[in-house]
Amino acid sequence: MSSREALFPGAQAGLSEPLGWRWLGGLLRILLLALLVAEVASLRASLDTDRFLGDERLWARVLLETRHGAAFLITTLAAWLLLSGAALRAEYAACERAHWSLRPAVAFGLLHLVLLLAFRQASGWLLREFDGGTTAGLALLIGWVGLALSLPFTLACVAFAPPAAARALARLLPGLGAAALVAGLSVVASVQALSSGLWRPLLAGTAILTTRLLELVPGPGPTIAALESEGFRLALGDFDVLVTRLCSGFEGLALTGVFLAAYFAAFRRSLRFPHVLLLVPLALAAIYLLNAVRLAALVWIGDRLSPELAMSGFHSHAGWIAFCSLALGLVFLSRRVAWFHTVQGAEARASLTRHESVNPAALYLAPLLALLVTSFVTGAMTSGFDLYYPLRLLAGVACLAWAWSELPPRLLAVTRVGLGYGVGAFVLWFALERAGVQPRASGLPSGWEGLGPVAAGAWVVLRVLGFVLLVPLAEELAFRGFLLRRLSSSAFETLDLRRVTPFAWVGSSLAFGLMHGQWIAGVGVGALYALAAMQRGRLGDAVIAHAVTNALLVLAAPLHGPWYAWL
Fold first, then answer.
1. Long-range contacts, 558-564 (Cβ 8 Å, 24+)
2. Measured between alpha carbons, how far is 247 from 404 in angstroms, rounded to an integer?
3. Total-model pTM
4. Helix, coil or strand: residue 469
């Protein structure tokens, strides 16, 4: 009997139940991926590259740019998924089918630990003492890079059979190399644009647009004081802000460009080229103008309404509201204007119109999107304490009511299964918090003290209802009802939850965790909610599990900390 069969009886028979080998293997991969992310975050926090500032030697500049490693890794991963998403799913399935055994997994786990310690030691020496003047020094630098690349590979050999992992990597290497090249060029271009002064024309144009917009507002006009190196100071009445290169519009232009590239690549079969490329200059001009509108509104709010509101709530949310609105507008335009899409895309939409009353993806995503969009808007209207949370609740309930009649009743049926998973998820979340793993901020939101007893009580009741009832429904529809099945099949709406793939389970759990500030606990409880849905094929069990967890978090908060810790 193999170690796999000994650890997981029934694995050879290919059990599809959630507690069979495939799902425990998926849980192992989630934990290993979380471990890799934690290692990267820890290493990044410990690397100090300040001694290379001002050093113009090539190797020193390369080491200095390691401070942008997180941006490089995220961009590489996004580009890799975009360029090789189908191939990655196929290789994952192939690795999953390969024979896994315990002995090589333990061996590669120990090897990973040794390489991690060696990488930490080499990093400390490299950043403290490396001079790069000798051939031996450059060889050590190359070895350091090799150690970094070996860390994810050894973890892959723990998660999968090593020969299968090596074959998959060899086949995926061209796509990964192309993604790394795209990410590297993007990061280098961004750094160069910000460090070489290319942002100055953008900032000058932003200053002109912003002042022209403020001159349209009745009352005293704006004033600008130019600063030689940092940017300019924009004032209206008694309120003024420093507008630096980070407000030049560069970030919005880059983000819009990345979004359009991803959108064009993902929907290339239904978009008409080169016609759709006309959207690129239109989108870039629009986001640049929206940045000026954002700055003008910020100064106006600071002068006429509240400086605190302008610099906290509005400043932190307005940019994302502008970008998300533009992105949705571009998608709508490209889908509705015949000049931008192909005949196949039009036929697909016509088929949807004939056979279904609404887009099935919209049914599952609309409630969560309503909550997110409303949170951006209400967050921009407040500072610290979200006084207008009831509006978020109202928007979510309205979208849920619209979608409810179209959702399959059997899918939403509930059993007692969800109760156990909900308690387990609460124990996991609570234990991680008590252990100090990504604890929440414990301070009472600013602005709360301004509410009277009746208003504060009503707000808390609505917040509890949203947290315990609405949020579980909206998030489970999106992550388990849509994403878990969509990662398994394009015809997700007809797929039984008991037939989803382990890849989909891992991917949807990661996505759920990353949407939460406490992403480590979020990944774990997301995996448990998915298991609740998969055990009997009922999304309602996942909703019950999620609701039980949230309810227990509310009840436990006063016993182990301030009552508002769950807010």
1. 560/430, 560/434, 561/442, 562/442, 562/444, 564/444, 564/445, 564/448
2. 42
3. 0.73
4. helix
